[in-house]
Amino acid sequence: MKTTILIHCPDQSGIISAVTGFIHAKGGNIIYLDQHVAKQANVFFMRLESDFDDNTLNLEGFKNEFTTSLATPYQMQWSLHLDDVLPRMAIFVSKYNHCLYDLLSRYHSGELKAEIPFILSNHTDLAYIAEQFNIPFYHIPVTKTSKNEVEERQLELLKEHNVDFMVLARYMQIVGSRLIDEYPNKIINIHHSFLPAFAGAKPYHAAFERGVKIIGATSHYVTEELDAGPIIEQDVTAVSHTHTIQDFIAKGRDLEKIVLSRAVKLHVKRKTMVYNNKTVIFS
Amino acid sequence: MKTTILIHCPDQSGIISAVTGFIHAKGGNIIYLDQHVAKQANVFFMRLESDFDDNTLNLEGFKNEFTTSLATPYQMQWSLHLDDVLPRMAIFVSKYNHCLYDLLSRYHSGELKAEIPFILSNHTDLAYIAEQFNIPFYHIPVTKTSKNEVEERQLELLKEHNVDFMVLARYMQIVGSRLIDEYPNKIINIHHSFLPAFAGAKPYHAAFERGVKIIGATSHYVTEELDAGPIIEQDVTAVSHTHTIQDFIAKGRDLEKIVLSRAVKLHVKRKTMVYNNKTVIFS
Amino acid sequence: MKTTILIHCPDQSGIISAVTGFIHAKGGNIIYLDQHVAKQANVFFMRLESDFDDNTLNLEGFKNEFTTSLATPYQMQWSLHLDDVLPRMAIFVSKYNHCLYDLLSRYHSGELKAEIPFILSNHTDLAYIAEQFNIPFYHIPVTKTSKNEVEERQLELLKEHNVDFMVLARYMQIVGSRLIDEYPNKIINIHHSFLPAFAGAKPYHAAFERGVKIIGATSHYVTEELDAGPIIEQDVTAVSHTHTIQDFIAKGRDLEKIVLSRAVKLHVKRKTMVYNNKTVIFS
Amino acid sequence: MKTTILIHCPDQSGIISAVTGFIHAKGGNIIYLDQHVAKQANVFFMRLESDFDDNTLNLEGFKNEFTTSLATPYQMQWSLHLDDVLPRMAIFVSKYNHCLYDLLSRYHSGELKAEIPFILSNHTDLAYIAEQFNIPFYHIPVTKTSKNEVEERQLELLKEHNVDFMVLARYMQIVGSRLIDEYPNKIINIHHSFLPAFAGAKPYHAAFERGVKIIGATSHYVTEELDAGPIIEQDVTAVSHTHTIQDFIAKGRDLEKIVLSRAVKLHVKRKTMVYNNKTVIFS
């Protein structure tokens, strides 16, 4: 049984030794260990892939003992994931298809190891893609006055389908506070600029206007403040005076889909941890 | 005699044919022609390298005729440069030496084809480098109350040495308005972020705080508004949670010197044109 | 009527003036002019986008006069393309779908301005994609003994459909000499390494074995010598000791599709010229 | 007392737990732990930064016990480095100054934490730089017949100065077998191409001839086979048909110095391990 354990806690001497000793004592073989100390904040982070013999490991007992022996004394926040339980990911889209196609083709080829219980959109334009890939599609239109009901309906769907995290694949609506509260660091957005430059609407137009020589895309966890959540992944590409806004948009599409897919894959592999509105990425 | 001609004017049909026909009629051989139309603004830009027989070309006559036949009817702003007249470049520095060393080593190897009449600093820390390279060094300290005199003295030096353009190689003072007015699009700065992100002071600290995954550097012409002038060149490098602010600064130094040197070389080769606070770079 | 003219000829003084003067005299407005001189080989290249009044231009007359006045005296090889006549592109594939999907989604969105008369494969695996996009699909299996007939049948199809150029979107067969001869600089391949490193089979395995820190992809025109034709476009991505061969392959897929699509777009816009087994790319 | 321990051994269960438990038992605080398993070769690699109380640690006793308790049973190859003992680095150069300047300016600013007992060259051109930085300079000319004596003299100098590793900063001579044997994985070279492409002489000329769109530089450990040793670091930059061989060389210089300095810094921080002619880089 392969497991991934994520830990963060106040830094102090002896944590690595204590944790690895515990795993070893329980018959686990550590396959990979990543660790980081955020010096300024004095926080210790660890990600641990281990392999256990299925016949001998009592999962509940393991968790209880881990809590008593390690989590409580070291004040850890921690989680344990079984590698053969795939995370369940809902995709929110509007009208652009490039990010959706990219995610689904990686899903389809087995590169992106997640379940996709449904695709949700405020428009019907991309329903045909959901159909191509045989994934349920929900159309929840958004109007100025429907925001509360929309959020209610979204939450219902997420609960009903046991969704673990959401991907906003160029979903052109603001996500409501209740969703953000219920899914902290579990809503991944793609913004079409190298944040913090050009937050908000029409970043390619703003980049063109400013005359930058590089454009970018940023994938981040969604927080209350628009385009200000913890950054997971960024990438850029060169532009010049010869490019029109349309060229920026076309080049940007290639960035957006790659950057978003990279971020989603990191999340699915539990390689991201969040602290102080920043990410630790164990890549 | 090799020449470079830069032109910009309202776009209309027939300009290229008219200009190249004129050059040809004057016995010039066009070596390279670059051209661009900014569609939204309807502005035409051209850069033309030509070779003339030294014995037959009357330079004053050529300029007069160009004005009458082309510049006036097409409402051109234009300039003609002789390739063997090197532009005269003053370098302003404070205490950091990496950009200065980089520029001077390119100057010394012949890669950067400019004259350097002097280096100016508000500190004396880098005087030894000026001495190593045998270039006059002026120390003009800046205090809160001396700004006017400083600017006066700087202008005198620039005039006295027939300076064509200035490079702020991590000069940590605001350049005064009179200098900016007298040298429009002739003062090149390096800012240590991918503008417009992190304009102003301490960009690496701000980038660290924000948790970006990419840091950058931007070289631009100085205008009245801080860090908001036309961008000439930008580049970026990846960072991660493992990097401290000191690592950002060290990685940034490598970017700054390369980006600044690229921008200076483009300017020296007259490959930059400015319009609407943006650059056309004929690279 | 928008046109693109491509010219190459021995370099000499006055060509640009002669050509632009001719276009102007025929009532054409030059929209964009790109030009290059390969100094060592003394060859002049030009690409010219012009706009003509449809009512007054006699295309045959124009071509005849261009030949007499310019092409013959200057020994030009030249071609004229009407921008509203889309080039006809056949796609050859085997079993991998990522490049095919990428091309077709750009075709579908209007970003790739070409006709696609058919998709051809030596397998049937990707027939479903052709069906999704409503494009004819031909299955021509290849065996050791069928090579001649295969080539015969391919040529027939290409002729029958008036194909202008071919894209080998991870087509895992050697293309025959007759095709190469009949379509010189008109067969675009994607090779999954930064050529000339790792030419031939299994480049990701070879790259892994060698322990490189960067992998790449190269799009080039097909010539008789394997993976040795004129390079149109290359790109790379960083790898490390943490990546397996499977990771190399997954990262490589992202490179391959982007690099191939860029090359195809350059070809479709007639921005590529070939000389001495190298390309001039007017980007 | 800060220490860095490097370990590699056959992979098996329990190593991490055993090592971290040992360090903890000896009063050490593990600051950073990096680890990797090369699956195909079944080799385990670890790098461990630990902090010990200077008053209580008996270094010889620690080493003996580590050998008995861990190194012998786990068949480890291992080394322990004290962080305040700077490695001693000799620099070999010929006539190009860019890599030398870059290394020395990083050394001078404290970014490169090494001692530089001497600079050695087969020419006298760069003696002035050694003088600027106040570092002993040895001129050992190389002729066809002097190779044995040269190697003898080099070895003497290296021993005499207790050199830990060498950097070939564009040293244009083949290093002899005896040096390579005595300093395995301790001679760092910079090659001016993205290896394995363009190994050997004149790579920029070969790259120009081939018409590549990307050029690169590679830093690697020197082995008997020319340009075929374990790669530490690579980087690339875009080129186009507009660039001459001279442009390739100038762009390449910027790559070479940055890539070499990165590799040297990784080596100095003991972040490189070598196995099967490949590197593990704990960056």
Instruction: Count every beta strand of chain A, where a strand is a DSSP E run of 2 or more residues.
Output: 13
- Described by its quaternary structure, the protein is homotetramer
Count, helices of chain A = 8
What CATH calls the topology of the largest domain in chain A is Rossmann fold
Structural class of the secondary structure composition of chain A? alpha/beta
Q: What does this 3D model show about the protein?
A:
The structure is a homotetramer of 283-residue chains. With 283 residues, chain A is an alpha/beta fold. The first copy, chain A, folds into two domains: 81 residues, 2-Layer Sandwich (Alpha-Beta Plaits), CATH 3.30.70.260; 193 residues, Formyl transferase, N-terminal domain (Rossmann fold), CATH 3.40.50.170. Helix content of chain A is 33%, strand content 28%. A seven-stranded mixed beta sheet of chain A has the order 7-6-5-8-9-10-11. Chain A has a four-stranded antiparallel beta sheet with strand order 2-3-1-4, covered by helices on one side. In chain A, β6, α4 and β7 form a beta-alpha-beta unit. In chain A, α3 packs parallel to α8. The longest helix of chain A is centred in the last third of the chain and has 24 residues. The first copy, chain A, starts with a strand and ends with a strand. The mean pLDDT of chain A is 95. The interface between A and B is medium-sized, with 31 and 31 residues.
